[in-house]
Write a structure and sequence with these properties.
Number of domains of chain A: 2
Oligomer: homotetramer
CATH class of the largest domain in chain A: Alpha Beta
Largest interface: A-B, 41 and 41 residues
Strand order of the largest sheet of chain A: 10-11-9-12-15-14-13
Order of helices and strands of chain A: EHEHEHEEEEHEHEHEHEEHEEEH
Number of strands of chain A: 15
Radius of gyration of chain A: 19 Å
Largest sheet of chain A: 7 strands, mixed
């Protein structure tokens, strides 16, 4: 007997990558009914005409309008658009919001009218999310980097961090540009926003809120990778813990995490692609500790984590609708 | 309330690609409990040490032995190994078998001791599979090609067929060889087994059994592709039907199919990757009809279709455990 | 002692893919000096700002204007633009033209004002090209398919042909479109212009001009591939020759060809990528002969063949400037 | 008039990746004749049967034996094999050696019998190489990382360095292993030898020999990338120079370098693939300087640099035989 479809969910900006991934997840979520999938650019046409893998699975059409008779709205409208949407739209207070943009992630912007946004990283804020009316979903790189550093920050062991991360093309959205052209990106690597990526602010906010000791400082070099899905990150820090003690610290910290696992074996990116998991492994050499972490940027890095947050907000088991088969290859 | 785990399933040859994909599916299947995952080469070690994407999801170990107290056994042991296994192993008659090799696909080899194998293509043999004790799961190329041709064969409209197909690297298994080396296969294309692929025999058997008219003859050129998952096939035939009539014929033929959909729009491979779906589209030019079909070789082309067959054999809804999120990108 | 730079060459439409490839070749060509690289969109900026691999190799700037004091002009302006250019531009009769578009490939369009264009496939028309003032460079698919079929056509052994070909993304130019987006094209396959590709006309023209027997008819299915460079084609025909006789026929036909080689071993695409070569292999099964051919679409399929034609027109050894190192991997 | 083929060169271990790339280069080198291409595993068979892109270009066979009547021998036999070869083989003193393994790169191992090896990084040791009888060719990662750091080291501005690098699959050679399998490596990323890569020793040796100030310390995280050719590296250091001063320092340092160029624009990997170039760019943020560098691991990182060293040793222009067309896409 299936769970009753008790949660009516709407999606704003449903024609983009994160909107599409949310639809894929929610169509299979046992407790959710999609009330609307709004898209200005695609209003009136079938969802499966844009997200073509859904052909044969749904008759849903994109709508022009947002319906207020819902329990939750996911905002996938892009950076800056969430603020505009909330200003322009009157919603009942009972409608919860999960925003996937960076509009409400920082303390300074977390209060929007009467709505206060909780930073939606379950490994950091699980209890706050459970009670939240509004959640600011973390950035994709921010998720992978923080999950690699939270245990050290919580012990006050984090100071200067050197991080390099590589991201798949879906992290840049579906806009057409020279660097999204297949002929350019295939077999290519490029750095971008070196030491200036916008996610560093939310990373610093989390690490510094947690750290009883020094104020962690992350120097982050992002690279564009020649694959479509996934983020792989390595952070290097000075650390006085032995490998065994560090491993033990990480395993304790994530013992109850629903999707974040610490491995004593080497990890690689494809183990998490098309899942909501984060995998972490550690290596020690001299005084340096290297932390590797891997996620799927569209799932744990965006829409999957949004569903995880929704599950927490509606008192569902955290895994509900998120036990995804890895693509593995 | 979850479905009771009423089906106890075993897997023989569980350390290979199709075995791993079966484990991924069955771990999430609401009606199945994995009783054993047998592997000679990996006996005693954790399943997640070989199928590393399963880290954090199962504590299952590979076994040396096969346990007879099961409802069904999937044979993923490779071509020639299934015959040997059944000869060497005494199993209760009540244990059903789904074999993924080519050992029992042809009429001439379908009877093995007291066990008679039904050819497990649901779109062709759904009722026979429902009543079967033993199923020979079709080949991956054979599935994609047949699904593109069955409607024409059933109308006696199929004569000479020219087919080209391209397959991902997982179709060749995990054996190491020069043509499985990344440096060779990346960005490369090669024909192999030209006009001599072993799947043509089972294709001919199905088409000819169905066709009231001429004896269809398929000339098949397989290519190795530079991707990991998926098969894309185009068949060209002479056809007197108009495009509209052909489309209508195909849509009627697959109106009740659980996973095979006929699209009036162009298709592409990635819409089906990481799903159990087959997508088909048609194009007409002059007297020629081109039929495009796409599947995931490890799912609809192997382990997914095996689960679909199991669902039919155990009177479960055909979609059970197979509503997979496409990777899409 | 280097060859004197005796040929002054200009390029119209030099900012596109084929224009860039021509610049790469001509910069290293011992007998050529690039007189101008014209581009309306990029006039005034350095060539190396667009073709960024040339950073450190040339100070050349794109020009707005075409300079008439040259020996040869390559037209890389795109289909339809070559006709317009020749109508709008007064050039001395002594300036030779090689056009890379399809504007002058067919007999019906080969005469443009006082200029008559020779179809520039050296394996078909070497002597005519040597004496030509104007050459229409063949299409990329047209080159690969014809080279696979010319020997049979010349013997009157060609009737109905079923051909499938796959092309890299550079074949579609640098325009941005949904199917040129990396997230779409990576690991994907799609058919396009099925049985209706524009290159079939020039293929038929060549084959029929050569064939003393039946009028060959090519049914061609093109696929988009998930790589950047290269074309791989398989054609299947009825053929009464044995494998040995067919191989011998092909080897005789191409005995003096500068870049087209017939291999008795299986071929694969990457052997020719980043070279001007065409590799061909044959397989026989029953009455069917399969012919595989592979080229680099930007070289033998476009700019490399254009340089080969220029070499012939200026009585240089055919290999001059075209002895390129394969990327091989 | 071509340059006379005055240099007779032999290759030991010619069937591997670096051996093959050397053959590709030397076949087109105007001053070199390949005297032998030795391979124990492939003795007696055609070079083009192993390096299949060379089909149609050479009739050369692999030899079992090494011929002493040569001017230079390239050792491509693998780490540890070069020492064994020199111990077991009596060569005239006049035969020069370029070794591509790590056997003679460090001061402690640079003297082998009567042969003293010069570390063959032309940007560091051009004059020493010109006079050398024996050259130890640098490692691929070592080349990319050093070229990014030499200018700072020479000014005594280098202290602690955090470096991440990604390499194509050809860097790991042609051996078959789980991580060289296409199904594993496609679309995947993995760290390996984290903070323990063997190239760090030669990097430290060069930087410290050059640095008048602090003893530079490089913390290096290597990643396996999902492409075949190329290395992209980012190093982050504390640096008191402004961006403009740093750029100026780098441009002065490499003003006379034959293949290393400093770009004021962002760089990407494919600009150098299939060339002997190294491209470098800089970015400054706060007190941190990021240095990006890119090379082709088989060319500037191995066989191309070996030919560059040979050119220096034989007083040829450094570019001779190395003006390669980039694959660009």
């Amino acid at each position: 007997m299936p769970i009753a479809k008790t949660i009516r969910a709407g999606i704003v900006g449903a024609a983009g990558y994160t909107g599409g991934e949310l639809i894929r997840l929610l169509l299979r979520h046992p407790a959710v009914e999609i009330a609307f999938a709004q898209s200005r650019s695609s209003a009136g046409i079938p969802v499966s005409a844009v997200h073509t893998d859904l052909y044969g699975e749904t008759e849903l059409l994109f709508t022009e309008e947002v319906l207020p008779e819902v329990d939750i709205i996911f905002l996938c409208a892009g950076h800056g658009e969430a603020v505009k949407f909330l200003s322009a739209t009157t919603l009942p207070d009972t409608v919860r919001i999960i925003d996937l943009s960076h509009d409400f992630r920082l303390e300074a912007t977390a209060l929007q009218g009467k709505r206060r946004f909780v930073y939606g990283l379950p490994e950091l804020n699980r209890e706050l999310i459970r009670q939240a009316g509004n959640v600011a979903n973390p950035g994709c790189f921010a998720t992978a980097i923080q999950l690699g550093l939270l245990p050290l920050a919580a012990e006050g062991l984090l100071d200067e961090v050197h991080t390099t991360g590589i991201t798949g093309s879906t992290g840049a959205g579906q806009g057409l540009s020279p660097t999204s052209h297949f002929s350019w990106r295939a077999d290519n690597i490029q750095a971008y926003k070196t030491l200036q990526h916008q996610h560093v602010a939310e990373i610093h906010q989390s690490l510094r809120s947690l750290s009883p000791g020094p104020k962690p400082e992350v120097h982050f070099v992002p690279w564009r990778g020649d694959f479509t899905r996934g983020i792989f990150v390595t952070s290097v820090v000075d650390c006085r813990l032995s490998y065994e003690d560090a491993l033990s610290l990480y395993q304790r910290f994530y013992a109850t995490a629903a999707f974040t696992h610490v491995s004593a074996e080497p990890i690689d990116l494809k183990r998490v692609v098309n899942t909501n998991k984060c995998l972490i492994s550690l290596e020690k050499s001299g005084s340096k500790l290297a932390i590797h972490s891997a996620i799927d940027n569209l799932l744990k890095g965006a829409s999957g984590q949004a569903v995880q947050n929704m599950n927490l907000m509606f008192e569902l088991p955290e895994h509900t609708g998120l036990q995804l088969k890895a693509s593995a290859f």
